[in-house]
Amino acid sequence: MDKKWSILILNLGSTSSNIAYSHDDEIIERFEMSHDMRELRSLKTPEDIVAFYKKAVVKFIEDNRVKLENFDAIAVRGVGKWGAYKHGAYLLSPQLGDSVRNSEPGHLGLYAGTMIGDELSRQFNIPAYLYDVVPTDEVLEIATITGIPNYRRRIASHTLNCRACARKVAEQMRLSHDNSTFIISHMGGGFCTLVYKDGIIIDTYAAGDGSFTPERPGLIPNAFITELYTNQKYTKEEITRLTKKDVGLYGHLGTSNCIEIEERIKAGDKKARTVYEAMAYLVSKDISSMAAVVCGKVDAVILTGGIAHSEMITGWIKERVSFIAPVTIVPGAMEMEALAGGITRVLNGEEQVNDYDAVRERLLFED
Is the pTM of this model over 0.85? Predict the structure, then answer.
């Protein structure tokens, strides 16, 4: 019988963390821990951040009697230095780990996952890999040009889950994932809407480009930004609150919990309904505009992420975008299976590992 690879999987996030181990792409044991946002926001140093997340990883290893010295690899939803990545795998080498360790933490979960994966890799002498990282950037050059000369859009998306969904839906539709076209909208704490064509993400709306989300503002009007930074009554703390904290559904309604909001709507809360439907309306606009990228030639629109469990939200979006293509709903996230499957393909020699040295910031008109 062919060998099955044993893989530890680390997917540490802002609202929750998932830890698992797999044999090839089959998840054997899984643990999920929800996080208190107030506790996360209280973490002050990189050491505090890593220690907070490491408790969950150590608990999983101990509770499941995981013997890492017998494992073949660690799969990490993480990040390295800033720059344009290709889709697929990167070895979490000491060089990569050191480059992150010597930089300021951005996304806390991605930072901690990378640091913990690097530490375990060195301690147990097994390879660790990043896979389908957030700043995967293979978009069309025309999609990166703005009205500001010499400024190139920074590209980021929920690459991991969206590419996994594309593989799954392509298989269901009996299409090749590398010869198909999907518009995918991932709706969680943050959103992204993207075009997946022939195995590559060719354009995307990330958190600062499109719809507001439960906890993020989406595209902020220029006039509001100008007011914030030119009016002396706004302190740095006030600007941070208005643009990063009291935003999205939370800013409008005092909660980012969609179940609670839907209960308020059913009880007759008109403001909750208007704000909630506005979010679906804006996602629908994002999806519809992405259809223009591929001249309307779309095999399916895919709605995914935790909010795709909501029949209210998906119903509103389907009503507005089903003229483009059939709408398929893949609720939740496939990130754990995507990490396991991607690294299994690497270990089997079916996918090549990308060169981390080639990661750098892309410039406009390089060709």
Answer: yes
